[in-house]
C-alpha cells in the first residue's frame, strides 16, 4: 500500500500535519476548512491520555501548531514535538522540546529515544510505524487517530494511500496491548476515522505479582 502524509486541514500534502494552515498544494475548500476548525484537543487523545504515566514524557509526532502539545503540557506531561514547519512550531518552544525535522524525507530524528507516550493525529506516513513502536518505553502508550477508508465519499483526503484500511492500526499494533480501537464515522465535520490506544506492557521489574493483572481503566 502506498504511503503518504495527511495534513491537519484534511487534505494530502507534502509535509507533516499542521493545525493552523494547510500545506502547499492542499485543498482550501470549505469542507477542508472545517477540519482546520478542530482547534481543541481530540476527545480520543483526552480520554486515553489518562493511561500515560503521570508526569511522563510524551512525543507529539507531526505536532503542527500544537493543539495537542499545548494540552498535554497543561496536564503536567513533559513534551517533545516534531514537525517540519519551523514557523508553526516556533511559538511552542516555551512548552518543551521542539525538533524541526522532515519525517518523510529524512532519517528518524530521535534515534534511540523512548517515550511514555507517542501521540499522532491526522497524520499518516506508513514507513514511520516501526519507529513509533520502537519509541515506546515499557508501559508506554501509542495514541493514533487519522482518516480511514470511506473518507473519499465525504471529502478530502480521498486517495487510498492517505487513508487507513480496515484493521490497519490493529495490525501495526501487533505485540502491543490494545486497550481501545475504533473504526467508524464522526460528524461535525463528517469524516471517517480509525483510532487506537495501544500499550507496550511494563517490564517484569514493574510488575507486582501480588497485585494481579494490570488494570487499564476504560
Rounded radius of gyration (Å): 17 Å
Order of helices and strands: HHEHEHEEHEHEE
What amount of the residues lies in strands?
15-25%
**How confident is the prediction overall: mean pLDDT?**
85
The low-confidence runs, each spanning 5 or more residues with pLDDT under 50, are 1-33
From the spread of the alpha carbons, the general shape counts as globular
> What spatial order of strands do you see in the largest sheet?
3-2-1-4-5-7-6
The counted number of beta strands is 7
Instruction: Please report the number of helical segments.
Output: 6
The major pleated sheet works out as:
7 strands, mixed
**CA distance, first residue to last residue:** 33 Å
Which secondary-structure class do the elements indicate? alpha/beta
DSSP helix fraction: 10-25%
Amino acid at each position: 500500500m502506498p504511503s503518504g502524509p495527511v495534513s491537519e486541514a484534511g487534505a494530502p500534502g507534502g509535509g507533516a500535519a499542521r493545525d493552523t494552515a494547510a500545506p502547499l498544494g492542499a485543498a482550501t475548500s470549505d469542507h477542508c476548512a472545517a477540519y482546520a476548525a478542530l482547534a481543541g484537543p481530540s476527545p480520543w487523545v483526552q480520554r486515553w491520555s489518562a493511561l500515560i504515566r503521570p508526569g511522563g514524557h510524551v512525543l507529539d509526532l507531526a505536532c503542527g501548531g500544537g493543539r495537542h502539545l499545548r494540552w498535554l503540557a497543561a496536564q503536567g506531561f513533559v513534551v517533545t514535538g516534531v514537525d517540519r514547519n519551523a514557523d508553526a512550531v516556533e511559538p511552542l518552544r516555551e512548552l518543551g522540546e521542539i525538533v524541526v525535522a522532515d519525517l518523510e524525507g529524512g532519517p528518524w530524528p530521535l534515534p534511540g529515544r523512548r517515550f511514555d507516550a507517542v501521540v499522532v493525529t491526522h497524520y499518516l506516513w506508513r514507513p514511520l510505524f516501526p519507529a513509533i513502536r520502537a519509541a515506546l518505553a515499557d508501559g508506554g502508550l501509542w495514541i493514533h487517530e487519522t482518516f480511514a477508508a470511506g473518507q473519499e465519499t465525504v471529502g478530502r483526503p480521498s486517495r487510498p494511500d492517505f487513508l487507513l484500511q480496515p484493521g490497519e492500526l490493529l495490525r501495526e499494533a501487533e505485540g502491543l496491548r490494545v486497550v481501545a480501537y475504533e473504526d467508524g464515522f464522526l460528524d461535525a465535520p463528517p469524516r471517517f476515522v480509525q483510532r487506537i490506544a495501544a500499550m507496550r506492557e511494563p517490564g517484569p521489574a514493574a510488575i507486582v505479582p501480588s497485585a494481579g493483572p494490570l488494570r487499564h481503566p476504560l
